């Protein structure tokens, strides 16, 4: 299965090779089972400003920079454009509420996967739309054996967040100015998948949320898997294919 997906990726982008040197992980819903907590906090925080933010919208906009999400939703519901500063104030309230939530668990299979990636001599990067410093610090603490701050892209590193390709292109740059065929993206959200695909990177969608697989496949995911443990199981097959071009 994997070989067919990779060959289709190479053909789709007219690349002559697939030779991964870095794996770029999204954070929420990929490293942590944190999306339910985010949904609660988005709803509560936005209600304070007269905005209705149902759970479905949390998944719809997942991966986008928080201030961009707020600007879009305010425009839709209140018909006005707000500045980045005003949106940031609203996002800060959402972040405050999230800090009061129980700590989300690490996704099953993530550390085992990172161990295998590291053993294959590849770099690991994190590309998130979050700008919450405590969350970034938790990543550094929980995954200290695999990633450092130089290889993390957050909301404040780019002007355009997901679904633009910028965050993942920045991830490639931080990994040593790699080419798209030298990376792998691991995502769980439609906007994140679209960002990875737009950057030309082989994009694995792990469907850890309530959306149908079609919501991820329709954004161009090169492969859709039901859980992180499945990607862990298939990792050596992916890595072995990439080594064909070394």
TrEMBL record:
Q: Which PANTHER family match?
A: FRUCTOSE-1-PHOSPHATE PHOSPHATASE, GLYCEROL-1-PHOSPHATE PHOSPHOHYDROLASE 1-RELATED
At the top level, the lineage of the source is Bacteria
Protein name per Swiss-Prot or TrEMBL: HAD-IA family hydrolase
Which Pfam family is an annotated match for this chain, by its short name? Answer: HAD_2
Q: Which organism is it from?
A: Leyella lascolaii
This protein's UniProt keywords: Hydrolase
User: One GO molecular function term?
Assistant: sugar-phosphatase activity
